[in-house]
Amino acid sequence: MNTPNTSRAFTVGKTDSGWARKIVDMPIDQLGDGDVLIQVEYSGINFKDGLASTEAGRIARIDPLIGGVDLAGKVVESSNANFKVGSSVIAHGYDIGVAHHGGFSQYARVQSSWLVPMPAGLDSRTAMMIGTAGYTAALSVDALEKAGLKPNTGPVLVTGATGGVGSVAVGMLALRGYEVVASTGKPETAEWLKQIGASEIIDRAETSAESPKPLERERWAGAVDCVGGATLAYIFRTMKYGCSVAASGLTGGTGLSTTVMPFILRGVNLLGIDSVQTPIAIRRAMWTRIATDLRPSWLDTERAQVIGLAALPAQLDNILAGKIQGRVLVDPNL
Question: How many whole angstroms separate alpha carbon 166 and alpha carbon 93?
């Protein structure tokens, strides 16, 4: 195919009149370094994208920046024999959408060392239904199981359950036979959460409540925490003996007020989850699992909202305000 000279893209950055979010025609030769050019079919909206779209978020490290920390599409140019023209790929993490132009663009140029070949059983749409958020959920489930979590040992708590990480974690845990308890501040989503795999819904007010007690009744055999702050402190107080929490989020704050008691009296484990700098071999293996034994049962039936570049400002504001349910996909060609 003939590659155009420009790529329609959504950029953020400083202008003479202040911080701006706008759609531009970016010259293809200004998409950054990389040995593979991808025609983007879908990207997704992540909390980090919301932060990167604002000056106060202090995430964008180039100016202007094409946002979008994840993307999926087809290779249109490649100097790496392992990624042939026409093949489907996934890219996320590393510098993408932060210090390197990302997925909110018709085309993206990236390093082949950042690419994941599309696993059998996924396509660009379903891969971005999972996206960075779902990949983080997969890392969380994998870490919990490596730490000893097994079905039938008790309920597993998922906080921020309507968000990208939380909703995929609910589906993955349910698929693997766990009793999933979903915490949310949106009671109107209870039925949807049950449809994607939750067996019980509890109010966010309960899981974010502060307490002077260093320990409370043991409840959780495991937890996927997408919130942090007071919620993570609550989880520590209520974990079962020897069990673990996988923590990946900070929407509830970066501070953590807790004691050593859960760790030294109950042997609780904190598993830190980072999806950005995962070595590529681990990343590719995890995506193979996402396409097989971690594939949520709702992946082919759940209908994602798909938007074009012009709708990005409103949706980026929504994710920062906690108003997005599940995943919102971006088709840069709309």
Answer: 18
Between CA 202 and CA 158 the distance in angstroms is 10
Distance (Å, whole) CA 91 – CA 53 = 19
Q: How many CB atoms lie within 10 A of CB 145?
A: 17
Token pair recorded at residue 211:
């307490």
In contact, 194 and 167? CB cutoff 8 Å? no
For the whole model, what pTM was predicted? 0.93
CB atoms within 10 A of CB 152: 8
The pLDDT tens digits of the residues spanning 220-268 come to: 999 999 999 999 999 999 999 999 999 998 888 899 999 999 999 999 9
**For residue 15, what pLDDT band results from cuts at 50, 70 and 90?**
confident
Alpha-carbon torsion, ordered 43, 177, 215, 225, to 10 deg? 0
Cβ atoms of 169 and 141 closer than 8 Å? yes
Whether 318 contacts 324, CB under 8 Å = yes
Which helix (H) or strand (E) segment holds residue 40: the answer is strand 36-44
Q: Which H/E stretch holds residue 220?
A: strand 220-225
User: Could you tell me which residues come within 8 angstroms of residue 163 by beta carbon, excluding any fewer than 6 positions away?
Assistant: 47, 133, 226, 249, 251, 322, 324
CA dihedral 257, 259, 260, 266 (to 10 degrees): -110
